[in-house]
Every structure is written in structure tokens, then in C-alpha cells.
Design a protein that fits this description.
By secondary structure, the protein is an alpha/beta fold. It folds into two domains: 136 residues, Aspartate/ornithine carbamoyltransferase (Rossmann fold), CATH 3.40.50; 151 residues, 3-Layer(aba) Sandwich (Rossmann fold). It is built from eleven helices and nine strands. Strands 7-6-5-8-9 form a five-stranded parallel beta sheet. The longest helix is centred in the last third of the chain and has 20 residues. It is globular and about 55 Å long.
Length: 316
């Protein structure tokens, strides 16, 4: 039984302010476990989690796997390459066959938007969205929000700017929903060709001037150019993109106050961000990575903790 108002984590839409605060508060406690000499608790012992990844991933997959192991769950990793999927098996048949092996939680990444929602209607397992196409990436947004809360104490009234390829990013929508729910204001900055039409309905502001965005923000969350999801002709060249929307030290030095820099990774150094920014004291990028494990531990615990046969939290 979920300890949140939602049974699954398909996206952040529908999660209440209290739900998000509960996840972030729980993640802080999970982070304490990561700092112990023995970084493992038996909280989810007896549960089986499958990481069902139909797209390549390094950070997200590794982070989920580590979170599962820290909570003592049994972990099964699935890769589409070399599986029955490459022979024509459908997503649903694949998932049903895996669930028949008595899996409790399915963590899914898939190129098709809505894939986690589809599985939630056909499986009894708890579904966690690890990224579905251009749609959402809820745990990435949660770790971004935890990192900002660590830095600023609260998200209420915080001015956060998402810079870059908004149209092709699954991180952007989850961040917009989560940040707005917790009281932050959200500004989007990028070329007009990389900002979705009608995105203003989510209560965000838009600018195509990076220097203006820097002057009106407390934090920049810099998104990479996702060439693998783009059609051609959305901007003249990477060099020109960097000229107008690349975040560098010269631009940040003109800010009215020091900005906090986030990036969900992987970074294209020299395109959307320069090394002197990524490696500077303004950057909390490595903090995001640490918080990613804690947030995913929290999500697994809050969604699946009620199913675990042993809910204790003492070290093994």
C-alpha cells in the first residue's frame, strides 16, 4: 500500500504539495543512510524490482539500481537489445511475462510518451516512470527540487529558469509541474523553435534572451540539446546556439547575485554549458547525482514500503 496519495509514480501531475514534501523529507532521511558506514537497510527485503529500460541510460538506471540495493530489494535489469522485444514482442507481453515471475515494482524508461500509464492499466505491479519520451521524468525533477531546497531552504517564491531544449526534454515538464506545486516561479529560456507552443498554460513565463533570464533568476537548470530527438533546422548550428544560449562565466558574472547552476546530465560541454561554469562553486551538479539515489530510495519506499514483508529501517 502506497504511503502517498498515488499508487504509482507516472508523473508529477496529480501529486499534491503534501505528497511532494513527503517525498523530499523522506529523501533527506534516505540520504542519511547513504552517509552511514553501512549504506544498507532491510526496508524492502523480499521485494523484487525490475528496471525495464527500452532506451539507453547511465545515470538514471545506475541510480535506481543502487537505490534498490540500498533498500535490500532484489533487482532485475532488463535491456531491450538482445531480448524478445528485438524479435517483435510487444511492450505489454514483455511486461506481463516479467510480472508473471512475481515482480512487485516495474521501473520503466521508454521512448513512447504514456508508456508507464499504459502499463499501470494492465499490470498489478507498482509502476515508476524513469522517463517516457518527451513527456515526463518525475524522479529527475524531484532530485532537482531536493537540491534546490538544500540550497535555499524553501522553494516558495524561488525563481527558477529552465534553459535550453524545452520541447524535447522530459525533465522540463516534470520540473515545471513540481516547482509550481511547491510555490516556485518558472521561467523558460531558449530559441523559439525549442519551446513548445501553448506551454504558457502551465503558468510559466518565456524569454528568448539568456542575459535577461540570468538577471531574473535565482537558479538555472540547464538542459542539453537533444539532437537524437530533433528534426533538422531547429537552429543554425551548435556554435550559434552556444553564442546565444550557452551559459558561460562571462554571462554569470553580470548577474545581480550569484546563481545556482543545475544540469540533469549528460552535459554537452562547450554547447549549453562551459566547463568553467559546470565545475564552479555555483554548480550543484554532483549534488544532484547524490540526491538522485536518495530521491529514488524515497520513491521506492513510499510507493512499495507497504508491500515489503520487513519494514524495519535498522542497518543490517
Amino acid at each position: 500500500m502506497s504511503l502517498l496519495s498515488q499508487e504509482h509514480m507516472l508523473g508529477l501531475n496529480g501529486y499534491s504539495e503534501q505528497d511532494l514534501i513527503t517525498i523530499l523529507d523522506t529523501a533527506e532521511r534516505m540520504r542519511e543512510i547513504l552517509n552511514r558506514p553501512v549504506k544498507k537497510v532491510p526496508t524492502l527485503r523480499g521485494l523484487t524490482v525490475v528496471n525495464l529500460f527500452f532506451e539507453n541510460s547511465t545515470r538514471t538506471r545506475t541510480s535506481f539500481e543502487l537505490a534498490e540495493k540500498r533498500l535490500s530489494a532484489d533487482t532485475l535489469n532488463f535491456s531491450a537489445s538482445g531480448s524478445a522485444v528485438s524479435k517483435g514482442e510487444t511492450l505489454l507481453d514483455t511486461a506481463r511475462n516479467i510480472e508473471a515471475m512475481k515482480v512487485d515494482v516495474v521501473v520503466i524508461r521508454h521512448k513512447s510518451p504514456g508508456s508507464p500509464h499504459f502499463l499501470s492499466r494492465h499490470l498489478d505491479s507498482i509502476i515508476i516512470n524513469a522517463g517516457d519520451g518527451r513527456h515526463e521524468h518525475p524522479t529527475q525533477a524531484l532530485l532537482d527540487m531536493l537540491t534546490l531546497r538544500d540550497k535555499f531552504g524553501s522553494l516558495k517564491g524561488l525563481r527558477v529558469c529552465l534553459v535550453g531544449d524545452i520541447s524535447h526534454s522530459r525533465v522540463a515538464l516534470s520540473n515545471i509541474i513540481g516547482l509550481k506545486t511547491l510555490g516556485a516561479s518558472v521561467l523558460l529560456c531558449g530559441p523559439a523553435t525549442l519551446i513548445p507552443r501553448h506551454i504558457e498554460r502551465f503558468g510559466v513565463e518565456i524569454t528568448h534572451n539568456l542575459d535577461e533570464a540570468i538577471q531574473n533568476s535565482d537558479a538555472l537548470n540547464i538542459l542539453r540539446i537533444q539532437l537524437e530527438r530533433q528534426s533538422t533546422g531547429l537552429f543554425p548550428s551548435l556554435r550559434e546556439y552556444h553564442k546565444y544560449f550557452g551559459v558561460n562565466r562571462q554571462r554569470l558574472d553580470k548577474a545581480a547575485s550569484p546563481l545556482t547552476i543545475l544540469h540533469p546530465g549528460p552535459m554537452n560541454r562547450g554547447v549549453e554549458i562551459t566547463s568553467d561554469v559546470a565545475d564552479s562553486d555555483h554548480s550543484v551538479i554532483l549534488r544532484q547525482v547524490t540526491n538522485g539515489v536518495a530521491v529514488r530510495m524515497a520513491a521506492l519506499y513510499l510507493l512499495a514500503g507497504g508491500r515489503a514483508p520487513s519494514p524495519e529501517s535498522k542497518p543490517e
